[in-house]
Amino acid sequence: MKHIDEKLLESNLEYRFGYLIEFIGFGEADIAAIHGAALHLAPRVEALVDAVYEKLFLYDATKRHFVPKQHGYEGQAPTDLLSLTLNHEQIKFRKKHLGEYLVRLVTHPYDAKLVAYLDMVGKIHTARAGNAELVVPLVQINALMGFVSDALLQTIVSLGLDRETEVSTLRAFNKLLWIQNDLLARHHLPAA
Q1: How many of the other CB atoms lie within 10 Å of CB of 95?
Q2: Residue 77: is its pLDDT beyond 90?
Q3: Residue 11: exposed, middle, or buried by beta-carbon count in 10 A (0-12, 13-18, 19+)?
Q4: pTM for the complete prediction?
Q5: Could you count the other beta carbons within 10 Å of the beta carbon of residue 47?
Q6: For residue 134, which of 144, 125, 123 has the smallest C-alpha distance?
């Protein structure tokens, strides 16, 4: 039986990530499958991003998080939910960042820098980073991750990959999204 330092899981990101990938079984073959999907997924990133924002705009509980000025956005913020459209400059700014996130997942090495980035994705949805007014509740993050997971897996199934490649790609992204979900949730939950 392997000993896991549970306190270190909460305080050391690399230790936590190492534990997650070992436990889930996310390894080099998964990373290769994710990187191998890059050419197939690249032309679909914009449609995937649009689908995410269309979904987010269906609910006041998710759309409201885009009214306050986003960290790093220099333009005019919307004044209220009704004035916020999918074509607003702040939404274009956010869509760009989501697209860049998806591109990073399929092109960057899974090193300490990417792990820190994945962790920051969780942190910026809390008062700990970004705009302190933008605290996205965990239920909204989980709902979004479920939607993104389904949309991404559906996209992979539509690529027409051979069965073995399709299965390995689906499994790799499933594992990755569970890891990302943990790195999102850890900033919302009190340490054990």
Answers
A1: 16
A2: no
A3: exposed
A4: 0.90
A5: 11
A6: 125
